[in-house]
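Lecture notes, part 5. Sequence design as translation. It can be helpful to think of inverse folding as translation between two languages: the language of shapes and the language of residues. The source text, in structure tokens, appears below.
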């Protein structure tokens, strides 16, 4: 009896539901009106010399927030690969923490590490480092005129080697313009020197940089180690300024010009879905030596609250996601340590004075002559201890010793291990916000 009652009750409910469905179909079956999609508006206005080691803008999130938030409202949509809406902050952070918890110590160190691979094609050493040492970020070095399609194939192969636990690598290159343009050929514009870019209206430069950024994105690059925010004091001094002025890498000769144009370049990159990296904090415009090929490069002028730091402050206020620290020595800021190993420069100025919350990457600390006196196994450790996030090594042959030094230090020192965890987590959060982390 109980089963029979339920049976007839079920038939009654089904009939009622069928009646409701019929009414809804009759009500809403008229063809929907179609509204034409608005046409995309035009882009809103918003890098190393020969033998210069790859060295290292802005979102409205401010203080180094998620890069994609800074795309101006009028900017044309970035390429399909960059238009996926990132997850909200809380889910991205949760996912990053889950991935960190699943990683070995070696994999965590790898997220705080970026190693080079030739843009003309991976060599056995770079492949070994990326795969065996779990390095989670790639720098495309050298020069190639093969064009966007051929370079994209090389980048895809390198990125595949850097995949860890469903976490894709940041793939960076140097695409400033002039002497510093690693990727060239069909599909890439010939980008003018920064000193020429500085003659453009900022709105024009931002639109140009958006186009240049889309070309990088098409090649699979998601980080550009540019723009240069170093201020060279004058045209007369420029030829003596070996790392910047001698190659026209400066936007101008006042902090105001450098700021307006550097930020415009950065905004263009962001509009294209590429993270810009402002460099070389706190500035290389006043030195004479090039830290890549010379030791003892010293800036005897710059102080902690120097006017020449203003472009970096403006970029951070605009929301740049990456910042690169110079390898020079700044005795009026820190009498003890070189820039990348200085707690005053990295933690005190970048994190404290500027309030920057994004990724702090070193300049190359593998090949640079400036840091040669520091044992390779200590360089990455000293940078992370100073407050850095990601170690850049442009010599894949030297990378294993630096990587192992970081692993050994983390195994021996719980305090350093916590710093590795914090750096890796920051990188993973940035990747999760970009949709680069698989669940």
């Amino acid at each position: 009896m109980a089963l029979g009652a339920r049976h007839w009750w079920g038939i009654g409910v089904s009939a009622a539901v069928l009646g409701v469905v019929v009414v809804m179909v009759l009500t809403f079956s008229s063809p929907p009106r179609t509204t034409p999609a608005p046409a995309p508006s035009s882009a809103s206005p918003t890098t190393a010399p020969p033998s210069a080691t790859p060295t290292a803008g802005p979102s409205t999130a401010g203080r180094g927030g998620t890069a994609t938030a800074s795309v101006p409202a009028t900017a044309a949509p970035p390429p399909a690969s960059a238009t996926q809406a990132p997850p909200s902050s809380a889910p991205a952070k949760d996912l990053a923490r889950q991935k960190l918890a699943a990683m070995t110590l070696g994999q965590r160190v790898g997220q705080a590490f970026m190693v080079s691979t030739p843009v003309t094609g991976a060599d056995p050493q770079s492949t070994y480092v990326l795969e065996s040492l779990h390095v989670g970020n790639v720098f495309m070095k050298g020069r190639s005129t093969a064009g966007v399609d051929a370079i994209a194939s090389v980048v895809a192969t390198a990125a595949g080697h850097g995949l860890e636990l469903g976490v894709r690598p940041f793939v960076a290159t140097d695409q400033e313009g002039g002497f510093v343009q690693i990727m060239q050929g069909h599909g890439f514009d010939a980008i003018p020197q920064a000193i020429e870019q500085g003659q453009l209206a900022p709105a024009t430069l931002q639109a140009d940089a958006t186009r240049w950024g889309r070309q990088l994105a098409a090649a699979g690059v998601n980080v550009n180690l540019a723009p240069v925010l170093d201020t060279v004091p004058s045209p007369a001094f420029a030829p003596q300024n070996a790392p910047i002025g001698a190659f026209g890498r400066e936007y101008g000769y006042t902090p105001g010009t450098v700021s307006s144009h550097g930020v415009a370049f950065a905004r263009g990159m962001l509009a294209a879905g590429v993270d810009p990296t402002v460099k070389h904090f706190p500035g290389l415009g006043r030195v004479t030596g090039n830290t890549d090929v010379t030791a003892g490069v010293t800036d005897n002028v710059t102080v902690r609250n120097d006017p020449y730091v203003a472009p970096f402050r403006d970029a951070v206020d605009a929301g740049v996601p990456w910042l690169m620290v110079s390898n020079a020595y700044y005795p009026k800021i820190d009498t003890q340590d070189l820039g990348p190993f200085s707690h005053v420069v990295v933690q005190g100025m970048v994190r404290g004075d500027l309030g920057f919350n994004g990724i702090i990457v070193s300049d190359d600390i593998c090949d640079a002559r400036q840091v040669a006196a520091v044992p390779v196994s200590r360089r990455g450790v000293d940078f992370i201890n100073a407050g850095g996030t990601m170690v850049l090594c442009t010599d894949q042959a030297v990378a294993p010793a630096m990587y192992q030094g970081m692993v050994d230090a983390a195994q021996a020192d719980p305090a350093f291990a916590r710093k590795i965890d914090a750096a890796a987590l920051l990188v993973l959060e940035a990747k999760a916000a970009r949709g680069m982390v698989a669940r």
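The translated text above is only one of many valid answers, since several sequences can fold into similar shapes. The first strand starts at residue 113 and ends at 118.
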